[in-house]
Amino acid sequence: MSAESTGSRGFTYWRLRFRAWRGTRPFWAGLFTLLGGLPIAYFPYAQLHLGNLTLAMSTTAGAGSLIIGVLLVTLGLTMWFQSIVRVFAGVAAILLALVSIPVSNIGGFLLGFLFSLIGGALSISWAPGEPVRPAAGPDTPRGAPVPDDDPFFPEPRDGEAPNVPDMTAQANGGRKSAG
């Protein structure tokens, strides 16, 4: 390795990449929904051993609980990797959380129900951020006006009308006159 080489990509590189990935999608909504699906799917099939006593939580709705739990986990992953359908996934997660109350041991003993409900609400309320406009230079404070020669946000040239449609009210309803 030479003195100029950065070597292997370290922890900081992957942490910053994960942070950038996480910022472009409803990460916490997906995590809560995914974590909500696990107890809903697990508890109907769990067996708790207390000494010689075995407690089985299996119910007649065990298959329904498994389906609800797997769907919630799938919706959580969908929120991460297909964030364009976040509203649908959020509504579906809330509905599945509500259905899990009578079907799956009070929604995974309210743990899975609450996680899924919060995850669905976070998914519905999440919106992608607006891109940050680049500043004029490294010494310009954040939020300062951008210079006119910015190629990403062009201003109209002299004598050129801005690219904004005319929305003024007309007495004739906006129709062209016949004459």
Give a structural overview.
This is DUF6114 domain-containing protein. The chain has 179 residues and is mainly alpha-helical. The chain has a two-stranded antiparallel sheet. It has helices at 11-22, 27-42, 62-81, 86-103, 105-109, 111-125; strands at residues 47-50, 53-56. The chain has a domain at 26-125. The protein is built from 6 helices and 2 strands, in the order ααββαααα. It is flat, with a radius of gyration of 27 Å.
* Beta-strand share of residues: under 5%
Report the count of strand segments. Answer: 2
Count of discrete alpha- or pi-helical segments spanning 4 or more residues: 6
Q: How is the largest sheet built, in terms of strand order? A: 1-2
Task: Report the mean per-residue pLDDT as an integer.
Answer: 79
* Classification by helices and strands: mainly alpha
Catalogue the unreliable spans: none
**Helix residue percentage:** 40-55%
User: What's the end-to-end separation, in Å?
Assistant: 80 Å
> What is the element string, with H for helices and E for strands?
HHEEHHHH
Note the overall shape: flat
Please state the CA-atom Rg, rounded to the nearest Å.
Answer: 27 Å
Largest sheet: 2 strands, antiparallel
InterPro entries: DUF6114
Keywords: Membrane, Transmembrane, Transmembrane helix
Transmembrane segments: 27-45, 57-77, 84-103
Pfam families: DUF6114 (PF19609)
